[in-house]
Recover the amino acids of this structure.
C-alpha cells in the first residue's frame, strides 16, 4: 500500500472563520505590518497557481504518453480546472480584503496625508498602481 | 514462457505517482502551500480587521476562508486537492498491481 503523504489533516478538515475583533485596526508598521503580510499572501497565491499549472502539465504528460490514461483524462482535467477556478476566486477574495484597506486608507488620508505611500502600495498590490 | 505485453510503462507510472514521485510531490507541495496560505491569512487578521463580525472586512476574510474550504466541502480548494490526491493514489495502485502481477512471470 502506498505510504500516505503527510499534510495537515486537521487543517484540511477544520472549519475556517475569521476572528471577531471589537475595533478597527490597520497596522502599517514598516516591519511586519499589514502591507508586508498582504505581499506575502499575494506571493503565496501566485505560488499555488504555479503548482496547479505544474500538476496539470505533469498529468498531461502521462495522458499524452499512454493511452491507458485516457480514461482518467476528463476527470483529471476537470479537477485541475476546478482548482484553477478556486485559486482565481481566492485571489479575487484576497483583493477584496486589500480593497477594503484601500478604502479605509483613502478615507483616513483626509486627515493624515502621510498615508499616501500606503495608498500607492495598496494600489500596486491590487494591480491598479503605476509603480 | 509467454511475453507480457505492457499497455504502458507501469514502472514509470509507479515512479511518477509513488510517495516522492513527481506527481505526488507536486500535490504534496500544493497541500503544504494551502496550509501556509491559511497561516498567512490568520497572521494578517490581527494587523488589519474591522469592528465586529458584520464589518465588510470580516466578510472578505470569510470569503477567503470559504474558498480555501475543507476536504468535505465541494468546490473548495481543499476538497479538489483531496480529489486529485485520490486520483493519483488510484493511478499508483493500478500501476503497482500491474507491476506486481508481471513480476510473477
Amino acid at each position: 500500500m502506498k505510504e500516505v503523504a503527510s499534510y495537515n489533516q486537521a487543517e484540511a478538515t477544520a472549519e475556517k472563520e475569521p476572528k471577531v475583533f471589537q475595533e478597527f485596526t490597520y497596522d502599517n508598521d514598516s516591519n511586519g505590518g499589514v502591507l508586508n503580510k498582504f505581499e506575502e499572501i499575494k506571493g503565496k497565491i501566485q505560488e499555488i497557481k504555479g503548482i496547479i499549472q505544474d500538476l496539470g502539465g505533469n498529468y498531461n504528460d502521462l495522458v499524452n504518453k499512454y493511452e491507458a490514461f485516457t480514461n482518467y483524462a476528463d476527470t483529471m482535467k476537470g479537477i485541475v480546472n476546478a482548482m484553477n477556478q478556486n485559486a482565481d476566486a481566492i485571489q479575487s477574495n484576497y483583493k477584496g480584503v486589500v480593497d477594503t484597506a484601500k478604502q479605509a486608507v483613502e478615507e483616513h488620508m483626509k486627515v493624515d496625508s502621510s498615508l499616501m505611500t500606503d495608498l500607492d502600495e495598496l494600489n500596486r498590490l491590487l494591480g491598479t498602481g503605476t509603480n | 514462457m509467454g511475453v507480457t505485453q505492457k499497455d504502458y510503462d507501469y514502472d514509470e507510472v509507479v515512479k511518477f505517482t509513488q510517495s516522492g514521485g513527481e506527481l505526488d510531490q507536486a500535490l504534496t507541495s500544493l497541500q503544504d502551500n494551502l496550509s501556509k496560505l491559511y497561516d498567512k491569512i490568520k497572521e494578517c487578521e490581527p494587523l488589519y480587521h474591522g469592528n465586529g463580525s458584520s464589518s465588510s472586512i470580516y466578510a472578505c476574510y470569510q470569503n477567503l476562508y470559504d474558498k480555501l474550504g475543507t476536504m468535505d466541502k465541494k468546490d473548495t480548494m481543499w476538497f479538489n486537492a483531496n480529489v486529485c490526491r485520490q486520483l493519483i493514489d488510484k493511478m499508483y495502485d493500478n500501476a503497482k498491481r500491474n507491476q506486481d502481477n508481471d513480476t510473477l512471470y
Chain B has four helices and one strand.
